[in-house]
């Protein structure tokens, strides 16, 4: 390679030879494995990194050279912190960025570049020769960003998103999105670069235009373009605003309406909604966006998602949790959305979810908050909640939390909802049995947590409401 730098044929065959020396696959798992470490270190000590980088620079337009060079470099650096460091110092990061940028149309180059990126910058790769698994990966991530990797990868995504969607184009997009997912986490500058390059708008268009098939509803792993969009929006006010300006709210609502029968589509839409509002929550800091969501039909869409997918498996539990969180953000501090939610049957739907998912504390907590908000709009909503079975659901929750010191927040949420549910006028529609069960549960909770004011105060309020005017209450409360 050093003696014949001008010959693309020599460089191609040399890179291919190195690739075949170092490359092996686990027959059972299909994972890439480094064959014999001694060979890799001998090659590195002989200047293999520098020679391959020089070949990539000299023959930048030759896709086969780029493909085999990336393959050999990936084989050399897989699982070795020391070799990742040497590769970074030898200019490998800059070389692979140039390969990605210069061969946008080549699936083979993009595939091997993805492997190389994975070896160089993925912090999750186990490094057997070092206790530090992230230092050089983070440095290479910075190098890649400075070399224009983010812009190059976004260009690949945009290029193939604008062409007819063949299996080959889709695969290139997947690889590019996966590379973006490696570059963006823990690097705010790369996150901003991706947003500036147009990744937010492109990925948003891909996500909302995708036809999420019903038969894919049991797939737990998100698609690469969804993961990439999550990473771009996560804790980035700048990218969140970009998405909102690009019509993300309206597009997500439309997606939920058009694919109402697809649980996966509903789950993805709710997850993107939440990533939009994570950290710098737009619904809280900018009422305009909250109103836009309400006007676009988000309340109806989310309520329908909860109503239409009541199945019991884990996939639908994820949908229910995500939809409940979005609904909470929609009604939090927004009276118009609160009224709309009640009219759409959100109270009944959320109570049904509470009863169906008794074992899921995350769903229970967010459901308490939604019910708490909606029943305080007016007495009519409290009546609807009681008739929907909210009292029984909350009493069951109180019994589960009694005596469990690890679930004080849940107990506080449940008893607070019960206090508001049993206010004047509403308690009258409760049956004697409901009142007896509620009083017994509240007293048991108070006795179990005497020292916790956050439990005692709402519990006293609930007891006052439940026992007022009833002679039987004394015996129910245990004197």
TrEMBL record:
Annotated signal peptide: none
Keywords, alphabetical: Ubl conjugation pathway
Residue stretches of each ARM repeat: 437-467
SMART domains (alphabetical): ARM
Gene3D superfamilies documented for this protein: Leucine-rich Repeat Variant
Entry protein name: Armadillo repeat-containing protein 8
């Amino acid at each position: 390679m050093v003696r014949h730098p001008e010959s693309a044929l020599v460089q191609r065959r040399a890179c291919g030879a190195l690739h075949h020396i170092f490359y092996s696959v686990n027959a059972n798992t299909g994972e890439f494995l480094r064959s014999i470490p001694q060979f890799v270190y001998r090659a590195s000590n002989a200047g293999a990194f520098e020679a391959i980088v020089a070949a990539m620079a000299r023959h930048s337009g030759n896709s086969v050279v780029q493909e085999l060079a990336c393959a050999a470099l990936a084989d050399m650096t897989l699982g070795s912190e020391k070799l990742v460091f040497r590769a970074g110092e030898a200019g490998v990061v800059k070389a692979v960025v140039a390969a990605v940028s210069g061969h946008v149309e080549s699936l083979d180059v993009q595939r091997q570049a993805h492997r190389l990126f994975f070896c160089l910058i993925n912090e999750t790769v186990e490094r057997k020769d070092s206790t530090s698994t992230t230092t050089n990966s983070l440095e290479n991530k910075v190098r890649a960003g400075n070399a224009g990797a983010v812009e190059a990868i976004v260009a690949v995504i945009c290029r193939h998103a604008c062409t007819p969607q063949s299996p080959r184009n889709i695969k290139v997009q997947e690889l590019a999105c996966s590379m973006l997912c490696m570059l963006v986490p823990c690097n705010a500058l790369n996150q901003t670069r991706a947003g500036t390059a147009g990744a937010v708008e492109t990925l948003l268009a891909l996500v909302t235009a995708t036809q999420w098939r019903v038969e894919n509803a049991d797939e737990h792993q998100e698609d690469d373009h969804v993961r990439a969009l999550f990473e771009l929006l996560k804790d980035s006010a700048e990218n969140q605003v970009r998405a909102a300006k690009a019509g993300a709210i309206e597009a997500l609502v439309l997606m939920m309406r058009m694919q109402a029968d697809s649980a996966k589509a509903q789950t993805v839409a709710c997850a993107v909604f939440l990533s939009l509002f994570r950290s710098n929550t737009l619904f809280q800091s900018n009422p305009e966006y909250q109103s836009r969501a309400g006007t676009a039909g988000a309340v109806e869409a989310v309520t329908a998602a909860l109503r239409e997918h009541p199945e019991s498996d884990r996939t639908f539990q994820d949908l229910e949790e995500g939809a409940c969180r979005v609904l909470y953000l929609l009604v939090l501090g927004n009276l118009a959305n609160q009224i709309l939610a009640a009219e759409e049957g959100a109270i009944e739907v959320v109570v049904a979810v509470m009863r169906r998912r008794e074992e899921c504390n995350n769903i229970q907590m967010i459901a308490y908050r939604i019910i708490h908000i909606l029943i305080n709009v007016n007495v009519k909503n409290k009546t609807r909640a009681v008739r929907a079975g909210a009292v029984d659901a909350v009493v069951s929750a109180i019994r589960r939390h009694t005596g469990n010191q690890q679930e004080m927040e849940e107990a506080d949420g449940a008893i607070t909802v019960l206090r508001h549910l049993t206010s004047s006028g509403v308690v009258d529609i409760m049956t004697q049995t409901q009142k007896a069960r509620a009083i017994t549960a509240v007293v048991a909770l108070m006795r179990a947590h005497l020292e916790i004011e956050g439990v005692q105060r709402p519990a006293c309020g609930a007891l006052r409401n439940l026992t007022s005017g009833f002679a039987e209450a004394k015996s129910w409360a245990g004197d």
